[in-house]
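Researcher: Go.
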Amino acid sequence: MQFFIILFPIFCIFIVGFIAQKALKFDVANLSKMSLYVLSPFLAFKTFYTHTLTTDYLFYIGYVFGLCFSLVIIVSIWSILMKYSVKERCAMILSSCFMNNGNYGTPVLLIFFGAVGFDLGVIMMVLQQFVMSTVGIYYAAKGSAHSDIVNQKDVINKVIRMPVAYGAFLGIIFQLCHIPLSKSIMTSIGMIGDASIVVIMVILGMQLAKIKLTQLNYPKISFALLARMVISPIVAFCMVYFMPIEPVYKQVLIVLAAMPTAANTTLMSVQFDTHPELVSSATLLSTLLSLITLPIVLGLVGTPIPF
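Model: Structure:
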């Protein structure tokens, strides 16, 4: 029961966005742009500035990029076999390859693994944010083309212009150079950055309000959910088996790999018009499905489930 209590506030935020969009008809694209270009860079800066970098990051960096690109390859192969367009393939990648390690993953880890799991969860949240700010933006921009002929230079330029990655790099530089910031400045940065978390989830609820279930492509969503909730933790298990880290850390990494689709991917898909109905649906359905799959994963990795 504690597991469901943890997740209840998350679903409440989705519902607020859903009701708001049905009643007031917001311009979701402009709200997404505001969150992506204004709020999220502050969150990236704060995250990288406040968490000390250590040599252990090398293992975790290799893991998070290795898992991401393994899933990208799997989804790409499936998309080619199914003869999906570039835009459809990119939407599938956004739906399958990026997990919600932040507002969903960290509270779950805190309950089931305690402080050890929470601390590693924060580190992985930082790295996942960086991956989404680079690889995620790349595929969102690549999928924004209105044909299968994609100008690679234009895609790279869109990635370069995204301020989230610059916020992360700036946070790293400030930390490594030991540049102090006053408490009032950090409070302001924190307030702006933390606001992006809730805004992203509200936007997801708004995007879901625009979806018609009869228009969903269930074969694509089904494979996206399979990749995110089943294939991802299996790949993670194979990767952590060879990593020289403590067993509890291996358990945490596998559980994180089984988290639902990151809400940020909806933000990217809306901003770049990369089949947002597919990505947002995968985000919602994977979050709902995780109520079943996460307890199973937690049981398989050897963690007691407090039901």
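Model: The chain has one domain: 2-300.
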